[in-house]
Specification:
Layout: E1 8-12, H1 16-28, E2 32-36, H2 39-48, E3 53-57, H3 65-75, E4 81-85, H4 90-98, E5 103-106, H5 111-142, E6 143-144, E7 147-148, H6 152-165, E8 171-174, H7 181-190, E9 199-203, H8 209-217, E10 218-219, E11 231-232, H9 234-237, E12 242-246, H10 253-265, E13 267-269, E14 276-278, E15 282-287, H11 291-296, H12 302-308, E16 311-314, H13 325-340, E17 346-347, H14 349-357, H15 363-377, E18 382-383, H16 390-394, H17 411-425, H18 430-437, H19 441-450
Parallel strand pairs: 1-2, 1-3, 3-4, 4-5, 8-15, 8-16, 9-12, 12-15, 17-18
Antiparallel strand pairs: 6-7, 10-11, 13-14
Length: about 450
């Protein structure tokens, strides 16, 4: 027996005699066979069962094979389909192939050919399943808690996140505004043994010096004007969890001394109190400032710097990892369409080129805002360069094919990235990817071959 007993196959045909022949032939090969004599019955079975393969006749009364296949594409896109067809309906079978069917066999079906195509389809299905599992593993590696990127610099970020998360080591996250430093801090916490405990954020630049110490360490009633009751500070609230000190470079020197003590001794006193409080807190800090310069200017303590900078994670600006822009655009378009209840538009190549060529001084935050602007204010069918904010449009630099753009990429590089992004977005369904790009499936196939995209 050449088949695998766990392989289940649904066979659909309105000719009872053929169903019996197919069933007996394939059961001898070791497959688990279910039969249906019409498309409607097949859909009912598919709603309640998972099949490794569907073999369907093309011409049937009611729901025909092509309609059944389209239902499978919409609802069970990973299931391979073999179409059996008479010569007179061969064109429809070819149409099904263009839509993604695995193969078609002509009637009268030769049983040896049927066995061969079934083995090939199941082998293909197994390979696709393994590829999906691999893709999920890669996605986890290159997409941690909405931090997206497959550039070498972001792969380094993900590696550092995964290594440091398992420890309680203090981490300093560095990078320009809008690069996603809080997302990295959250990811480190969520992947750590402290994930079930609090994650408390404190923005050090958000409060004046007179209130920051109270915010971090708490105060007792009457300790200063306006202290009408005791207050628990952020460090105490984060006990056994993680505290994220954002914009640590803006913390005043007077508060830096108390913060240094917490890092060294894991203890502090509330403002106006002499009672020492001990805490078990993991500290993650972030800054967009040059702390080394601040040390030279005496605005940041050198000993605090070394306490914070045990492990550093550097987030590159978006202009330094433009190969990630297609992935980020795809993510934001999906997220915004769901969040705002908008129909997701297609993305024109020109709009993507515009975004790739822009310098993004506001980094990922600016990119997300630009996409939301375009989706809310622009054409609902296709996102065009003119839908983007004027600042992004004016930053576009036209280039000739093969010459480097301001991003350091050729237009051919950009086109390849668009193809890969569309294929990822459509889970490697070529018909859907072609639709996303606004091109034919044949053109997509040609360009995939051109760029050696598997």
């Amino acid at each position: 027996m050449q088949g695998n007993p766990i392989n289940s196959i649904l066979i659909v045909d309105d000719e009872t005699k053929l169903l019996e022949i197919y069933q007996k032939t394939l059961e001898k090969e070791g497959y688990e066979i279910t039969v249906a004599n019409n498309g409607a019955t097949a859909i009912s079975l598919l709603k309640n069962n998972l099949y490794d393969l569907v073999i369907t006749d093309l011409r049937m009364p009611g729901v025909d094979g092509l309609e059944l296949f389209r239902w499978i594409v919409r609802n069970n896109p990973g299931t391979p389909v073999i179409i059996s067809t008479a010569y007179s309906t061969k064109e429809s079978a070819i149409e099904a192939l263009n839509l993604g069917a695995f193969q078609y066999v002509e009637k009268p079906v030769k049983l040896d050919e049927l066995r061969l195509q079934v083995r090939r389809a199941l082998a293909h299905q197994k390979m696709e399943s393994e590829n999906r599992e691999l893709k999920q593993a890669v996605t986890h590696q290159f997409n941690i808690k909405n931090i997206i990127g497959n550039s070498p610099s972001m792969q380094e970020v993900f590696t550092r996140i995964q290594k440091v998360a398992a420890t309680s080591t203090t981490v300093l996250i560095r990078g320009e505004s809008g690069t996603g430093k809080e997302l990295v801090a959250q990811a480190i916490h969520d992947l750590s043994p402290r994930k079930e405990k609090p994650f408390i954020r404190a923005v050090c630049a958000a409060l004046p010096e007179s209130l920051l110490e109270s915010e971090l360490f708490g105060h007792v009633k009457g300790s200063f004007t306006g202290a009408i009751q005791d207050r628990v500070g952020r460090f105490q609230a984060a006990d056994h969890g993680t505290i994220f000190l954002d914009e640590i470079g803006d913390i005043p020197v007077s508060t830096q001394i108390k913060l240094l003590r917490v890092l060294q001794e894991r203890e502090f006193e509330k403002v106006g109190d002499s009672k020492t409080i001990e805490v078990d807190v993991r500290v993650i800090a972030a800054t967009n400032q040059n702390l080394e310069e601040a040390i030279e200017k005496k605005t940041f303590r050198e000993d605090l710097y070394y306490r914070l900078n045990v492990v550093s994670v550097y987030l590159p600006p978006l202009r330094a990892r433009k190969e990630d822009i297609p992935l980020l655009v795809d993510h934001f378009m999906e997220d915004i369409s769901r969040r705002q209840g908008l129909e997701r538009p297609q993305l024109s190549p020109e709009a993507l080129n515009t975004m790739i060529n822009y310098s993004w001084p506001g980094n990922i935050r600016e990119l997300e805002n630009a996409i939301e602007h375009a989706m809310v204010m622009g054409n609902t069918k296709t996102l065009l360069p003119g839908d983007l904010p004027i600042t992004v449009q004016s930053g576009y630099v036209s280039t000739e094919s093969g010459k480097l753009s301001s991003s350091g990429l050729t237009l051919e590089d950009m086109e390849k990235q668009m193809l890969i992004s569309a294929l990822n977005q459509s889970q490697h369904n070529q018909s859907k990817a072609a639709k996303v790009l606004g091109i034919t499936r044949r053109t997509l196939g040609y360009r995939m071959k051109k760029y050696n995209i598997e």
